[in-house]
Design goal:
CATH superfamily: Metallo-dependent phosphatases
Strand order of the largest sheet: 1-5-6-7-11-8-9
Order of helices and strands: EEHEHEHHHEEHEEEEEEEHH
Radius of gyration: 17 Å
Largest sheet: 7 strands, mixed
Number of strands: 13
Number of domains: 1
CATH topology: Purple Acid Phosphatase, chain A, domain 2
Number of helices: 8
Strand content: 15-25%
């Protein structure tokens, strides 16, 4: 989906990877609504791993949040996509399907894999058009190729569940973690910005994460949000989701490939 006629002169909240964690999603949206943003964009994976896929989709739709397809949405819609999932993730996908209505499945079918607004590209995985590719699996030359084949100055991604920022000035790549608080962006570099995960952290910090992009000040504001993890973990157990994925919510190290 291209929307190149619209500018980005505003504050945009960018979230990703809610993964059916209703408690985390609700607290993040409450924080966003107190923060005077002009729009919210979710970069995909509303579902998967977590216990409330139907309620999370309903919340996204009720709040009018712009959302993209992630690999977990693709997985429930297209059986051919299942081969890209490791066994634990595939098991979570199978359970998730049992808790989705036909109405929600029809809604997921309407979602685009990417969005362009002004000078910004939004996608779940890797720019310019690979929603299921992990950025942290790419070598430097592959990252340079991603920059060279993307026309926009800013690319916002999710998928890895890790906050980080990659920049490129045409010669030198720079990559670093994003931390809570504000990060300035320069006019002389291009950026791929991974906004982390709302509902399934992979960085040993159990809080929900998202960013606010302010184009007027050219800054990112990275937000870390507390929520009631125990409620989500209890729901996961009652619905048959893997304890390994529940343990990750407490900030435990990843015990298997993502």
């Amino acid at each position: 989906m291209d929307d190149t006629d619209q500018g980005c002169e505003m504050r945009t909240a960018i979230t990703s990877d809610i993964h059916a964690n209703l408690e985390a999603a609700e607290r993040v949206i409450e924080d966003i609504e107190r923060s005077q943003v002009h729009r919210i964009i979710h970069l995909g994976d509303m579902i998967g791993y977590g216990p409330e896929p139907e309620k999370v989709i309903s919340l996204i739709r009720k709040k009018g949040i712009i959302s993209l397809l992630g690999n977990h949405e693709l997985g429930v819609l297209d059986p051919d996509e299942e081969e890209g999932f490791n066994p634990p993730a595939l098991q979570a996908l199978m359970i998730t399907r049992n808790y989705l209505s036909e109405e929600s499945l029809d809604y997921l079918k309407t979602l685009p894999t990417r969005l362009i607004i002004g000078n910004a590209l939004f996608i779940h995985g890797c720019p310019p058009d690979l929603p299921s590719t992990y950025l942290h699996h790419l070598e430097d030359d592959e990252l340079v190729e991603a920059f060279n084949t993307t026309r926009q100055q800013f690319s916002f991604t999710g998928h890895t569940h890790m906050l980080n920022i990659i920049s490129y000035d045409g010669q030198v790549l720079q990559e670093e973690e994003l931390h809570e608080g504000e990060t300035p962006l320069g006019d002389d570099r291009r950026y791929i910005i991974n906004v982390g995960s709302v509902g399934q952290p992979r960085d040993w910090d159990p809080r929900a994460k998202y960013v606010i992009w302010d184009t007027e000040t050219s800054r990112l504001d990275v937000r870390f949000i507390e929520y009631d993890i125990a409620v989500t973990v209890d729901k996961m157990a009652r619905r048959g989701f893997l304890k390994k994925h529940a343990d990750l919510l407490w900030g435990q190290p990843l015990p298997f490939p993502s």
